[in-house]
Amino acid sequence: MQGRTQELCLLLLLGLGSQGTLPPPCDSQIYCHGELLHQVQMARLYRDDKQFVDMPLSSAPDQVLQDFCELAAAHKHHIPPQQLQAFIQKHFQAAGQELLSWTPEDWKDSPRLLQKISDPKLRAWAGQLHQLWKKLGKKVKPEVLSHPEQFSLIYSAHPFIVPGGRFVEFYYWDSYWVMEGLLLSEMPQTVKGMLQNFLDLVRLYGHVPNGARVYYLQRSQPPLLTLMMDRYVTHTNDTAFLRDNIETLALELDFWMENRTISVSSGGQSYVLNHYAVPYGGPRPEAYSKDFELADTLPEEDRVALWAELKAGAESGWDFSSRWLVGGPNSTSLSSIRTSKFVPVDLNAFLCQAEALMSNFYSRLGNDIQATKYRNLKQQRLAAMRAILWDEEKGAWFDYDLENGKKNLEFYPSNLTPLWSGCFSDPDAVDKALKYLEDSQILTYQYGIPTSLQKTGQQWDFPNAWAPLQDLVIRGLAKSPSPRAQEVAFQLAQNWIRTNFEVYSQKSAMFEKYDISNGGQPGGGGEYEVQEGFGWTNGVVLMLLDRYGDRLTSGTQTAFLEPHCLTAALLLSLLPSLLPW
């Protein structure tokens, strides 16, 4: 009789919170789907849904599920919050217990970068940012390896740097800018360990998950692993490490080409490009209650598609933005999200760059067949991007809306990612992009480049500005041989440095995003409070101080770049300092 009760109980657990026609984000009936997750998250016992799915188990999952099953049956599947809280206290540990603080072994005082910074206040600040790596270092406890079923954290053999705040595990695309900062801090061994963690994930799962949690397993993030390897090998000349892992890099690109491609026709020709798409069901476990309630506003037959599109938005790194809402029934409501219906400029620019790097890697290793393969892939993508994403009249690239058969002509910094990634063939592209920035009035923003010009309340929209997006535009322009483009890049860098420095001076903290609408403040909007730390923000600041340290100042006057001011700014600048990146 007891066995039959247990069987019925488990069937109920599996049934509630059904994913519809799509599989769940992972198999765990605690961390990814099922009645336990549903009841806890919908009871809103925590301010942030992520807190619960980050909590380790105190005993085996089968025992926890069985005990929950009996509790649910006793309360006819409506467990009072007090009993639910008591159950969690008995069966779960506090979030973060599976991680230990870690001081990187290759951290040292006074990296050479500091000597390049003329302004004493900025130099002192850079020294403090260098210190922050020690606060953001983590390593995984061995119990996660011996009992993985009791944790949502995925085991990593090597220590790593985290973003900070609620993000206590590492994330995919964040880590690229973190690594750039670490290399400037002369910490290549830390970078190598982080790279090894990512490569291990590719070997295990076939791709790099969004972050190091089981509930992130079925979605990735912007594919920058090949670029991370390039930065590490350029810094260390560790060709043996490249040779040992080149096939794993190829495996990751295969994931994108096998699971995230879309065919687009133009001018009688068909092109293959990539998009973000996560065909997995159910609410995101780390934002369960929000996703479930949002789905309640839609007809039942539309809910599975909504949850998949929300995951695709998370995979894009831009979670969330009007960029994925435009063209839908309500372009200000998250219920209209349609991420997979766009061919994004930045994703394809990142993959184009990865294909070029893979060609270079294989040439370096003496494999001409593979080098030619990736060189051809890059050329095919360049042609596709020009045919589908480039707009000659506007002078920029734009996401392509598959359903409506047209480009999304709204401004996003991502529109200029091909300049950053070197994936363009028109020698005048930089001058055209500069005119595009002028025409869009982007150079009039004094505290940073806005993420969009739409104010929706989403965090990847106006008035927020994000460090990686500043880098996309600034370095895209700085790589140009045009002194004018280089000067605009410097002025944009100056604006961003002053915003970050002034907020740090007031708050003694670095933030994941900044509000540039009123003098520069910590950002807001989205699904959670603004987070401190902050990995990629620190990395971009160190990159800009490394590039422009002899010119940047900590003063309060930010640059206001009307088009007619550019020539004057250029004349006032010292041409010898305008070296290519």
UniProtKB/TrEMBL annotation:
Keywords: Glycoprotein, Glycosidase, Hydrolase, Signal
GO molecular function: alpha,alpha-trehalase activity
Signal peptide (UniProt feature, chain positions): 1-28
EC number of this enzyme: 3.2.1.28
Catalytic activity: alpha,alpha-trehalose + H2O = alpha-D-glucose + beta-D-glucose
Enzyme class: hydrolase
One annotated GO biological process: trehalose catabolic process
Role played: Intestinal trehalase is probably involved in the hydrolysis of ingested trehalose.
PANTHER family tied to this protein: TREHALASE
UniProt record similarity statement: Belongs to the glycosyl hydrolase 37 family.
Name of the featured protein: Trehalase
Organism: Mustela putorius furo (European domestic ferret)
